TrEMBL record:
<feature type="binding site">
    <location>
        <position position="65"/>
    </location>
    <ligand>
        <name>Zn(2+) 1</name>
    </ligand>
</feature>
<feature type="binding site">
    <location>
        <position position="197"/>
    </location>
    <ligand>
        <name>Zn(2+) 2</name>
    </ligand>
</feature>
<dbReference type="InterPro" id="IPR006680">
    <property type="entry name" value="Amidohydro-rel"/>
</dbReference>
<keyword id="KW-0862">Zinc</keyword>
<feature type="modified residue" description="N6-carboxylysine">
    <location>
        <position position="164"/>
    </location>
</feature>
<feature type="binding site">
    <location>
        <position position="63"/>
    </location>
    <ligand>
        <name>Zn(2+) 1</name>
    </ligand>
</feature>
<keyword id="KW-0479">Metal-binding</keyword>
<feature type="domain" description="Amidohydrolase-related">
    <location>
        <begin position="54"/>
        <end position="343"/>
    </location>
</feature>
<dbReference type="InterPro" id="IPR011059">
    <property type="entry name" value="Metal-dep_hydrolase_composite"/>
</dbReference>
<dbReference type="GO" id="GO:0016810">
    <property type="term" value="F:hydrolase activity, acting on carbon-nitrogen (but not peptide) bonds"/>
</dbReference>
<dbReference type="Pfam" id="PF01979">
    <property type="entry name" value="Amidohydro_1"/>
</dbReference>
<dbReference type="GO" id="GO:0046872">
    <property type="term" value="F:metal ion binding"/>
</dbReference>
<dbReference type="InterPro" id="IPR020043">
    <property type="entry name" value="Deacetylase_Atu3266-like"/>
</dbReference>
<dbReference type="InterPro" id="IPR032466">
    <property type="entry name" value="Metal_Hydrolase"/>
</dbReference>
<feature type="site" description="Transition state stabilizer">
    <location>
        <position position="166"/>
    </location>
</feature>
<feature type="binding site" description="via carbamate group">
    <location>
        <position position="164"/>
    </location>
    <ligand>
        <name>Zn(2+) 2</name>
    </ligand>
</feature>
<protein>
    <submittedName>
        <fullName>Dihydroorotase</fullName>
    </submittedName>
</protein>
């Protein structure tokens, strides 16, 4: 089969194959077709010279809110993904069983970017989240809709990857663990993983972890105090270590209030890296402190995680959390998604959710994406890729 597209001469970093080499990547029929040096091009092949850039599997942002127009926190997935190098945006609970049909028809199906979703167990998802109105959807137990959530999840298995619930003082008030228990019942019924949000107690970090199963995801895992995973002495809480041992996954979910450098330093110093790095992008954090996925990834790069590990946390690890092994990899036969990245050198100011600033010497930047085996960057042609201040080293 002739190649539709060849990315020529980039530094290919694919943690799913433990690959880090300067080579070519070819796509055909919407999938990755081959990896190798000097791959042959036909006259009709779109050949892109990406030397000096990094080619990674398509970046997966495991925690986003992209029900644009359907909820007040939703952002435009295509604009965000183009700027952030994301090829798969996973919406985490913007919609519930009462409004998922609209999310599917009006946002997901028309989108050129792949959108998958965790379905909220609350009837209308996260409906009251704005600058002026902040209503915790899990506080009102009458909104919990397990029967319809199970039905909608079962009917939309092509797009729904799990069940979402938000617990904590702001999300569930004094309802404590009840919304979590309801969501777990739905997840068990449909055989899907759960993603649990946590904010201030009640419930406690430890109480939530104790109920999560192997393959379930705790998002906002590197929160500031209260409900932080680190002790006052800078060690990792025993309950956190025990949860990881039994297969609970820890996701960043940066957002407006859920990532602190202090927590991250303690966790990384103890060898506890996140399973997945995600932005939790929405209307209230897209202009800071989260900004986008590559900025969130950059923070971990500047805090000492290796570049391959940062990429793994946004590709293969996220694909495994989604139970979608065809994503997050450049193995031949995988979905034909790729992200082009550069590492800019300089002095960059990063900020967390409590206002602490970190000056980093590197910044990961998105330079283009491939979706379904086709170059997808309408606002930027390959000839305009800026490399003068970039390096793939």
């Amino acid at each position: 089969m002739p190649f539709d597209l060849i990315l020529r001469g980039g530094r290919v970093i694919d943690p799913s194959q433990k690959l880090d080499a300067v080579t070519d990547v070819a796509f055909a029929g919407g999938k990755v077709a081959a990896i190798g040096r000097e791959l042959n091009a036909d006259p009709a092949t779109d050949v892109r010279d990406v030397s000096g850039l990094i080619v990674s599997p398509g970046i997966i942002d495991l925690h986003t809110h992209v029900y644009w127009g359907g909820t007040s926190l939703g952002i435009d997935a295509e604009e965000f993904c183009r700027n952030s190098g994301v090829t798969t945006s996973v919406d985490t609970g913007s919609a519930g069983p009462g409004n998922f049909a609209g999310f599917r028809k009006h946002v997901i199906e028309p989108s050129q970017v792949r959108i998958l979703a965790y379905l909220h167990v609350s009837h209308a998802g996260i409906f009251g989240f704005s600058d002026r109105v902040m209503v915790g959807e899990s506080e009102e137990l009458r909104l919990m809709n397990p029967v319809d959530a199970a039905r909608v999840a079962d009917e939309n298995r092509d797009l729904i990857v799990g069940i979402k619930v938000r617990v904590g003082l702001f999300a569930s008030g004094t309802s404590g663990l009840v919304p979590l228990e309801i969501a777990l019942e739905v997840a068990e019924q449909v055989g899907m993983p759960l993603m649990a949000h946590i904010d201030h107690p009640p419930p406690s970090y430890e109480e939530v972890l104790a109920r999560l199963r192997p393959g379930d995801v705790l998002t906002h895992a590197f929160r500031p105090f209260p409900n932080t995973p680190a002790t006052a002495q800078g060690t990792v809480k025993r309950s956190v270590l025990e949860a990881r041992e039994r297969g609970v996954l820890f996701d960043i979910g940066h957002g407006k209030g859920s990532f602190a450098f202090k927590t991250a330093r303690a966790m990384l110093a103890n060898g506890f890296s996140p399973d997945t790095i995600s932005s939790d992008i929405h209307q209230l954090c897209i202009d800071g402190p989260a900004f986008d996925q590559v900025t969130t990834m950059s923070k971990f790069l500047c805090m000492g995680m290796s570049l391959p590990d940062v990429i793994a946390a946004s590709t293969v690890n996220a694909a495994m959390a989604l139970r979608r092994p065809e994503l997050g990899s450049l193995k031949p036969g995988s979905v034909g998604d790729a992200t082009l990245l550069s590492i800019r050198q300089g002095q960059f100011d990063y900020v967390d959710v409590v206002g602490e600033h970190l000056t980093g010497d590197r910044k990961i930047a998105s330079e283009g994406v491939v979706i379904g085996g086709r170059w997808w960057h309408p606002k930027q042609d390959a000839a305009s890729l800026t490399r003068s201040h970039s390096s793939a080293v």
